[in-house]
């Protein structure tokens, strides 16, 4: 399997090369030359596999430059009950007939990002050791990516992490998870701005090919294809569970499921898009935003309009406070029939000069064929959804999952199971949970009191040159 850029660079690259590279040299995102297809025979063979076994099967379709025995060992070492707290890894939680949560937040940082990041840490360490190289990871986070990356990379040989986050815009628990880490290879930079400022800096540094190569800069953001690929696995795992005897409704046609996905940077739901393109029987991919509804606006109107910092709302689901969705380019590339030149024009000049773009009527009409529907949720919606779910089912959910559930309820179809992808555990957003229910969500015992630990981070303006200097000062050239 080879990989090409969404912006037209057709130079074929192997998985191990793009694993360490991040953005393509032309500024685009990597995608495989094609999506491998799975049929009923393959799905039947995969049903009943352990999660680690399923991960190996899915990843093997995209990775042919890592020996199969090594890839299997990495999957087996990543997806364990010891790390994720349950042998199913991503068990379903029924809410009512035909509606379930898929639990993705049982990893070490209590967020779905652990599902991919734990594997990415092991892949990085493996590939760097194989090459005898080191890597300086530069990332941006709106809340959960940072802690998941840092917990996955801490202590890893040959890896340093430089993580940018919006200063003061994460929950206290999220901040503590990152800033309390004292590992020498972890560096937190709190940027005086919003997430999009952090993301823009990462892209600017990655697009400086001389600096990137000199300092061996890589990324763990979902612009890294390996991370998105790891997320494809849990769509298959969710499908197999939802169509098993235990969860199957007598009214279900059993051949398709839908997924509702809280969406900010479009990475999580893009993994669902890949799974659907592979042939997984997905009826709808239900995209849910918060008040920062740039993606919902596109799927309703065909217009993608990024917001300036002043227009980006600070909400109670902060990990989705994003108005420039990096992974969206991958979907648009597919929507445009993989036309790299047109994709480059839309995400280059059109975004830079116009602040957005509108696809043609013909292109907009193709969206339905990819299964996407969308909706938005507000703070009032989150409170009502959290409260109602607790009262009706005794299940406490976090604010982002509430956004997904609220929109999912508007798109339920008889006979088609709806799986809402859980984003994080409610303990990470205690203030809003308390506002909704009057109760304090309990964090796992190992993380109690984390907000009181000493913190180590550097505050910096949104300035690319300053970030570059910081990296130079703290890494080996």
Notes on the structure:
The chain is of the alpha/beta class and 477 residues long. It has a domain at 88-110 and 231-437: Rossmann fold, CATH 3.40.50. It is built from 20 helices and 15 strands. The protein has helices spanning 15-21, 40-46, 51-60, 68-78, 81-84, 114-131, 144-153, 172-179, 195-207, 209-214, 225-242, 267-278, 294-301, 328-335, 340-354, 361-365, 379-393, 399-409, 430-437, 464-474, and strands spanning 3-5, 30-32, 92-96, 99-102, 135-140, 159-166, 186-191, 217-218, 257-262, 282-289, 303-305, 356-358, 372-376, 418-421, 458-460. Helix 8 (172-179) links the parallel strand 6 and strand 7. It is globular, with a radius of gyration of 21 Å.
Describe the structure using short key phrases.
15 strands; alpha/beta; globular; single chain; Rossmann fold; 43% helix; five-stranded parallel beta sheet
Layout of secondary structure:
Elements: E1 3-5, H1 15-21, E2 30-32, H2 40-46, H3 51-60, H4 68-78, H5 81-84, E3 92-96, E4 99-102, H6 114-131, E5 135-140, H7 144-153, E6 159-166, H8 172-179, E7 186-191, H9 195-207, H10 209-214, E8 217-218, H11 225-242, E9 257-262, H12 267-278, E10 282-289, H13 294-301, E11 303-305, H14 328-335, H15 340-354, E12 356-358, H16 361-365, E13 372-376, H17 379-393, H18 399-409, E14 418-421, H19 430-437, E15 458-460, H20 464-474
Parallel strand pairs: 4-14, 5-6, 5-8, 6-7, 7-15, 9-10, 9-14, 10-13
Antiparallel strand pairs: 1-2, 3-4, 11-12
Helix pairs in contact: 3-4, 3-11, 4-6, 6-7, 6-11, 7-8, 11-12, 17-18, 17-19
């Amino acid at each position: 399997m080879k990989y090409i850029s969404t912006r037209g660079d057709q130079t074929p690259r192997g998985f191990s090369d793009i694993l360490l590279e991040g953005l393509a040299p032309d500024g685009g995102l990597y995608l495989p030359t094609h999506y491998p297809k799975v049929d009923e025979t393959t799905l039947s063979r995969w049903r009943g596999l352990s999660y680690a076994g399923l991960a190996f099967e899915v990843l093997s379709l995209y990775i042919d430059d890592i020996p199969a025995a090594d890839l299997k060992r990495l999957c087996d070492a990543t997806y364990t009950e010891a790390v994720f707290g349950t042998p199913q890894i991503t068990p379903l939680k029924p809410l009512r007939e035909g509606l379930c949560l898929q639990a993705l937040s049982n990893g070490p940082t209590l967020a779905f990002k652990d599902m991919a990041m734990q594997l990415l840490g092991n892949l990085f360490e493996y590939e760097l050791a194989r090459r005898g190289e080191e890597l300086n990871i530069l990332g941006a986070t709106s809340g959960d990516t940072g802690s998941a990356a840092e917990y996955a990379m801490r202590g890893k040989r040959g890896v340093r992490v430089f993580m940018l986050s919006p200063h003061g815009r994460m929950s206290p628990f999220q901040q503590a998870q990152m800033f309390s880490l004292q590992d020498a290879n972890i560096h937190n930079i709190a940027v005086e701005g919003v997430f999009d400022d952090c993301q823009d800096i990462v892209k600017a540094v990655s697009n400086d090919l001389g600096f990137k190569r000199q300092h061996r800069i890589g990324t763990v953001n979902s612009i890294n294809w390996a991370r998105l690929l790891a997320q494809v696995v849990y769509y298959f795992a969710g499908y197999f569970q939802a169509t098993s005897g235990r969860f199957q409704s007598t009214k279900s046609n059993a051949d398709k499921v839908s997924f509702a996905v809280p969406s900010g940077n479009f990475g999580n739901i893009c993994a669902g898009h890949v799974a659907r393109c592979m042939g997984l029987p997905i009826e709808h991919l239900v995209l849910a935003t918060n008040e920062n509804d740039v993606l919902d606006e596109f799927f309703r109107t065909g217009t993608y309009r990024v917001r300036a910092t002043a227009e980006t709302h600070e909400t109670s689901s902060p990990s989705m406070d994003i108005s420039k969705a990096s992974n969206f380019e991958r979907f648009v590339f597919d929507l445009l029939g993989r036309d790299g030149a047109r994709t480059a024009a839309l995400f280059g000049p059109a975004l830079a000069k116009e602040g957005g773009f509108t696809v043609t009527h013909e292109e907009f009409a193709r969206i339905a064929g990819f299964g996407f529907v969308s909706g938005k949720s507000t703070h009032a919606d989150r409170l009502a959804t959290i409260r109602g779910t607790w009262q009706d089912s005794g299940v406490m959910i976090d604010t982002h999952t509430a956004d997904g559930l609220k929109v999912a309820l508007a798109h339920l179809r008889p006979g088609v199971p709806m799986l809402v992808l859980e984003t994080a555990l409610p303990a990470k957003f205690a203030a809003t949970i308390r506002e909704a229910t009057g109760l304090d969500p309990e964090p796992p015992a190992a993380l109690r009191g984390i907000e009181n630990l000493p913190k180590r981070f550097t505050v910096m303006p949104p300035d690319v040159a300053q970030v570059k200097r910081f990296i130079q000062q703290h890494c080996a050239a």
